Amino acid sequence: DDCCAAPLPVLGRDVLVPLVTGGEVGYAALDYAASTPALQRVWDDVAAYAPYYGSVHRGAGYLSQLSTDLFENSRAAVAEFLGCRPGDQVVFTRSTTDSLNLLAAVLPADCQVFVFETEHHASLLPWRDAQVTYLNAPRSPQQAVETLDRALADREPYGPALVCVTGASNVTGELWPVRELAAAAHAHGARIVLDAAQLAPHHPVDIAGLDVDWVAFSGHKLYAPFGSGVLAGRSDWLQDAEPYLAGGGASRKVARRTDGGVDVEWHTTAARHEAGSPNVIGAYAVASACKALTEAGFDTLIAREQHLIAKVREGLAEVPEVRVLSLFGDDAPRVGVISFVVDGWNSSHFAAALSAEYGIGVRDGLFCAHPLVRTLLGSDAAAPGECGAPDAAPGEKSLNAIRVSFGAGTPDEHVERFVAAVG
Ligand code: PMP
Predict the structure, then answer these.
(1) Pocket lining: 41 vs ligand 1, CB cutoff 6 Å
(2) Which residue of the set 84, 111, 164, 368 is catalytic?
(3) 230 Cβ below 6 A of ligand 1
(4) Which of 60, 298, 345, 366 stands the most exposed, by the fewest C-beta atoms within 10 Å?
(5) Which one Pfam family would you cite for this protein (predicted)?
């Protein structure tokens, strides 16, 4: 590697891929936006803890006590990673999708929701359709703020409102003006939740500094692939609502009533929405990843990632048939997530060839952001299948795209191999 700092050690670097052309090659994981490999450090932490695994909040034994401490310390580590304010809650969930569905479930009954059509389906779909105002795709960060500002100014009546916005696009990698959008939301008395699934792995997320009300992210996109996600932020709506899941752990006191029914007193902490035995390994892995990224230093990680982004973009710019997809233009700040189409190629076939001939793992399709990708491709095709896309015949206009994405574990060789393969 010829740049800045070495990549962080991750699992999977030694996996060999059989090639159709014969022989085998080390797997080049260039689909970090879907799931990142585990950091070696996360794996080591999990392995060191595994013998001590026990039930959380449910046992008097030593291992149960230890696991409970570990779970609660993990919550504190995530709060520190996100720069949470006093009184903020950190709820462990299964994923970003789960986190946003949890928030949707606790909204006040008359809450209006504002969401750009460009969002990932996890941000676009959890809300009840009747309460949502879908905002058209902006063509600059400034236009995003103006669009939101206008939509909020128009709303009637002034009941509770929530804005849901991504920090970094899972399609274009472009950064959204979160701080400005939060200011616009608050100026109109609305709240804002940040979908940080693609932002948190690449940039520090400071909930207080950005002045967002909630942040959601996934462990498996943050080098901790153990089934855990996070919803962090203001506690009032979370505490006022019925539990997202009803069951043990969420309930403080349950008693039969004289009329035969049951009275339940729910917890007012994060446990209110964490019924059932929690995923302590997943939570611990997320906390371990948060610490590892903080220790590596986001300045260092960003410098390395920008170097890789420049390599990929310069390489793609050399190929006349390639069109890189962008909402905000070439100069927009971005993370290591780049989508493109290749003239004369079906994107699915192109991605399959990168795998079969070069051992490179990318993604093709509409990336669970159908309205955005259709806008970017200038196509109104219907896409069958979950997050899938129809085949275009070779030579036809693309109905789907190819996405290359990378991060803290990516060596230069992987992006160099990719650039050589596309060229
Ligand atoms: N939001 C964005 C921006 C994403 O990229 C993703 C995952 N592709 C999600 C939400 C959903 O994350 P998960 O599948 O972990 O729930």
Answers:
(1) no
(2) 368
(3) no
(4) 60
(5) Aminotran_5
Contacts of 88 (CB under 8 A, 6+ apart): 79, 207, 232, 233, 234, 235
291 lies in the same domain as 316: no
417 closest CA partner among 22, 29, 124: 29
Annotated active-site residue 368? The verdict is yes
Q: Which of 54, 84, 48 is nearest to 71 (CA)?
A: 54
Taking phi over 0 as left and psi of -120 to 50 as alpha, with beta for the rest, 70 belongs to alpha
Instruction: Please give the distance, rounded to the nearest whole angstrom, from the Cα atom of residue 249 to the centre of ligand 1.
Output: 27
Last residue of a domain, one of 234, 262, 295: 295
In terms of Cβ atoms closer than 10 Å to its own Cβ (0-12, 13-18, 19+), residue 396 is exposed
CATH number at residue 329: 3.90.1150.10
In a domain, 37, yes or no: no
Classify residue 92: in a domain, yes or no: yes
Q: Is the CB of 93 under 6 A from ligand 1?
A: no
Residue 312 covered by a domain: yes
Please state the atom number of ligand 1 nearest to the C-alpha of residue 97: 16
Residues 250 and 354 in one domain: no
> Residue 97 Cα, ligand 1 centroid: separation in angstroms?
6
The Cα diameter of the chain in Å comes to: 77
- Same structural domain for residues 247 and 378? no
Q: Which residues contact 400 (CB under 8 A, 6 or more apart)?
A: 347, 348, 364, 365, 366, 373, 377, 383, 389, 390, 392
Q: How far apart are CA 340 and CA 322, in angstroms?
A: 7
Q: Residue 114 is encoded by which pair of tokens?
A: 């504002």
ipTM greater than 0.95, yes or no? yes
Same domain for 370 and 331 = yes
The 10s digit of each residue's pLDDT in 194-223 is 999 999 999 999 999 999 999 999 999 999
Which of 221, 334, 367 to probe ligand 1 with, by most ligand atoms within 8 A of CB?
Answer: 221
Summarised one tens digit per residue, pLDDT across range 358-410 is 999 999 999 999 999 999 998 655 444 445 555 555 555 667 999 999 999 99
* Mode of pairing for the β-strands spanning 214-218 and 229-233: antiparallel
Question: What mean pLDDT comes out for the span 175-192?
Answer: 97
One domain for residues 410 and 285: no
Provide CB contacts within 8 A for 156, sequence distance 6+.
Answer: none
Same-domain status, 63 and 209: yes
In a domain, 36, yes or no: no
